[in-house]
Amino acid sequence: MCLFWMKTAQVWRLGVGDMPILPGSRHRPPLKRPVWIIVLVSLVSIFLICAYVYPPRSSTACYMFSSNGCKVFADWLPPAPAREYSDEEIASHVVIKDILNMPPLESKNPKIAFMFLTPGTLPFEKLWDKFFYGHDGRFSVYVHASREKPTHVSRHFINQDIRSDKVVWGKISMVDAEKRLLANALKDPDNQHFVLLSDSCVPLHDFDYVYNYLMYTNISFIDSFEDPGPHGSGRYSEHMLPEVEKKDFRKGAQWFSMKRQHALVVLADSLYFSKFREYCRPGMEQGRNCYSDEHYLPTFFYMIDPGGIANWSVTHVDWSEGKWHPKSYRAKDVTYELLKNITSIDESVHVTSDVRKEVQIRPCLWNGMKRPCYLFARKFYPETLGVLMQLFSNYTTV
Ligand SMILES: *[C@@H]1O[C@H](CO)[C@@H](O)[C@H](O)[C@H]1NC(C)=O
Ligand SMILES: *[C@@H]1O[C@H](CO)[C@@H](O)[C@H](O)[C@H]1NC(C)=O
Ligand SMILES: *[C@@H]1O[C@H](CO)[C@@H](O)[C@H](O)[C@H]1NC(C)=O
Ligand SMILES: *[C@@H]1O[C@H](CO)[C@@H](O)[C@H](O)[C@H]1NC(C)=O
């Protein structure tokens, strides 16, 4: 209602002294002077009241108010105040800002934390054992087994199970498990970088390559892109307002790797996390589904530290078949050529889920240089273990 009045009032304001060109005015009976002055004065007053009570808040609002953009208003209205933040938001912003500005924790013995999220026994423990061999002291391992107690075959994995809880696919319990892994891994001050892996993930390079790739950069590899389609912003709920706006809603694969400050920020956040816990879940209103593990971290980091994330994940997965699940490799698929193909990819690809199916291709830049994007890959069936063990020393040789 105010919108309508403001529009009308603006036409009047611009048209003052130029009455005859107002649309439609030619066919109206001429108003007597006192009448149109009263009408004009009241319209202008309503407009001013409206403009005062509902100042244009964003550029979208400006477009709604005036097709000339905001200029007309900006010249004579006081600057629009930012939204008033709640106590929780103010507290959250200062905590996040301070953590992000903290210098990295000095460590004489910096380590990478490998955090495995698995239902039970890890099928590729032997392969990882080969990967870790000879690098004791430069990594730590954490296993969150959500369904059954795993049996371990590698000494690097024995006694590395953390207390776990049930994980339901697509539900917030998935993010809870990720946070549980981060909390346990953060207890060791030597851990500087935190990699989340699944039971179907395998390494694509040798340990030194992975260590240097993750340690000698100051960004986190968190996948994040804007998907205006039904499987992206279509999952957004306005209940997340005012803290999370639709324009900030992002999507990305859950398999992250992050630096220590980012891991701390994730544990420090309860405000944004609670928004996703309540309003981004499977089976919400009108049968809409939202999956927090695909949206919480991509959105959160886009909002708080967009320049601090790479926007792609170092774990490769092949969605090119366009099915509900990514391609899973069988033993017969795994060849030297396949692994070389994956390790040579140096551009990240995102495809939107709207009708346009827009393909966004970006070079993978590591400290400003174009580099292969991926350190790990999924999804591999357990039957591929043998062939991967045979090929490992070959395909990881650069
Ligand atoms: C990372 O380091 C580079 C140079 O060393 C610096 O320009 C950049 O601002 C840093 N980025 C972050 C997110 O700290
Ligand atoms: C990631 O994307 C954000 C927003 O789209 C951008 O500001 C940021 O620079 C990107 N990060 C890198 C490392 O390019
Ligand atoms: C490897 O990549 C080449 C060129 O893109 C392609 O022709 C070939 O089929 C790929 N091989 C495998 C095993 O994926
Ligand atoms: C790895 O295997 C391929 C194909 O079997 C072979 O051509 C290549 O020479 C091998 N490379 C190394 C470093 O052993």
UniProtKB/TrEMBL annotation:
<keyword id="KW-0472">Membrane</keyword>
<keyword id="KW-0325">Glycoprotein</keyword>
<keyword id="KW-0808">Transferase</keyword>
<dbReference type="GO" id="GO:0016020">
    <property type="term" value="C:membrane"/>
</dbReference>
<keyword id="KW-0812">Transmembrane</keyword>
<keyword id="KW-0328">Glycosyltransferase</keyword>
<dbReference type="InterPro" id="IPR044174">
    <property type="entry name" value="BC10-like"/>
</dbReference>
<protein>
    <submittedName>
        <fullName>Glycosyl transferase, family 14</fullName>
    </submittedName>
</protein>
<dbReference type="Pfam" id="PF02485">
    <property type="entry name" value="Branch"/>
</dbReference>
<dbReference type="InterPro" id="IPR003406">
    <property type="entry name" value="Glyco_trans_14"/>
</dbReference>
<keyword id="KW-1133">Transmembrane helix</keyword>
<dbReference type="GO" id="GO:0016757">
    <property type="term" value="F:glycosyltransferase activity"/>
</dbReference>
<feature type="transmembrane region" description="Helical">
    <location>
        <begin position="35"/>
        <end position="54"/>
    </location>
</feature>
